[in-house]
Amino acid sequence: MLLVARKLRVDEPRETREECVFINLWRNPTTTADALAIGESIATTSPAIVGTATAPQHGVAALNVGGSKWGEALRIPLSEVRMHPWLGCTFAQTALVRCNWLLRQGHLLLPGAPNSHSVPLCPLERLGDLGPDGRDIHDGFTRGRGVTPYPALWNNDSDEVTTIDRAPNLYLSPRARAAAGRPERPANLLWPKAARTMLAVRLRFNTHRLVAARVSEAALSNVWYPFSLRSVNEDAEKALTLWLNSTLGLLVLAGHRVPTQGAWVQFKKPTWGPLPVLNVAALSDQQLRQLASAYDQVSHAEVLPIRMMDVDPVRQEIDHVFGTVLGLPPISAVRNLLVQEPIIQNASIGVPSQVEPVEERQEQFELLR
Question: Which domain does 87 fall in, by range?
C-alpha cells in the first residue's frame, strides 16, 4: 500500500477537497517503465464515482497501459472515508467495492441494475453475544477423556468441516488448577456462554468452506466463537447461520476483514460485533420458517471451498432461498465477481488460483495439561 496525502489550497474547488481517490492495482509493476506508465495512467484517468442507493453509479475507471489492465480507480466522499477509512480498497474490483458499501447500508445494487433492493441488516452485536475465545478455553479446561458434560467444536480443518450442521468432535474437562503461568478461569463462568451457533475466528478464503456452523448441542471451541441470540429462536439461529454462508453474507464479511496474510484473515470480537448481518429479529415468522426449512435441506450437504462458490450448488441454493424470502433478484453476477477477488483466490485477478498446502492446526490453540 502507498498512501499519498497533500495539503489542500484554500481556494481549491469544494468537490476536490471533499473526496478521496483509491487506486486498486490488480498486479504490481515489475519494471520502472511499467511503474511510470501506470503512474501516467493514474494521473490522466478520471476515477469512477462510488454512488449511492438513490443515485446509482456503475462506472468503472480502468487503468490501462497498452493492451493490459493494471487496476481500477474510484473516488469516495471524504465524509464516508472518515467513518470507514479503507472502504475504497476492500476489493480490487470497483463493482464489488460499490456493492459491499451499499449493502452495508441495507441496499443491494447489482451491476447494471437501475434500482437497489432493500435488505434488512443490523450489527451482529445487536442480536446476541459472543462467547469466550480459545485462550479463555485453554485457561479453563483440558481435553476430556471420553464424553463429559462439556462438548466442544474443536479446530477448523478445511477437509473435515465440510457441512454447516456439526456434531461435537471433542469433550472438555474443567481444570483442577491453573495452567503454568496462566490465570485460572472457572468452568462455571465459561460454560454458560456455550452456544450452538459458531462463528469462525480465522479463515483461509481459498481453502476453508464455512464462515459459520451450527452444533447439535451447546458447545465451546478453540477457534470458533459461540454466539447466543438474546431471543432464543431455533429458526432465527438457522437463518443467521445460513446468511453468513451465503454470497451476500460472505461479501460483507470479506469487506469487514482484518487482513493477516493474503487469503488468511482474522475475525476477532471487535470485528464480529459491528459486522452488518441479516436482521433475523426483523423477519416475520413465515420468513424464518422458510429459511429454517432451507437450512434443514442443505445443512448436511458438503459445501465446496469458498474459492469455488461460483460452481457450488449448495451455495447457489442458499442464495436462491434468500432471493425468494427477501424478494431479491438473482445474484449470480455478485458471486462471479467475488470469486475472482485476490482475497478469495489468493492470486491476482486472471491468474490461476494458488491453493497453499497449509496445516491449519498450526494456528489453533491446543489444550495443554
Answer: 14-119
CA dist 196 and 216 (Å) reads 7
* pLDDT tier, 367 (very low <50, low <70, confident <90, very high otherwise): low
**Residue from 104, 52, 60 nearest 277 by CA:** 104
Is 140 exposed, middle or buried (CB count within 10 Å of its CB: 0-12, 13-18, 19+)?
buried
Does residue 127 sit within a domain?
A: yes
Min mean pLDDT across 279-288, 328-337, 353-362 is at 353-362
Q: Which of 30, 48, 169, 55 is nearest to 97 (CA)?
A: 48
pLDDT (tens digit per residue) in 100-109? 999 999 999 9
Last residue of a domain, one of 94, 119, 144: 119
Measured CA to CA in angstroms, residue 228 lies from 131, 220, 327 at distances of 8, 12, 28
Q: What is the mean pLDDT of the chain?
A: 90
Please identify which residue in the block is written with the cell numbers 502507498: 2
Asked if residue 64 and residue 151 are part of one domain, the reply reads: no
Residues 77 and 137 in one domain: no
Dihedral sign of CA atoms 310, 315, 317, 322 in order = negative
Answer yes or no: do 107 and 142 share one domain: no
163 & 254 share domain: yes
Dump pLDDT digits (tens) for 113-160: 999 999 999 999 999 999 999 999 999 999 998 999 999 999 999 999
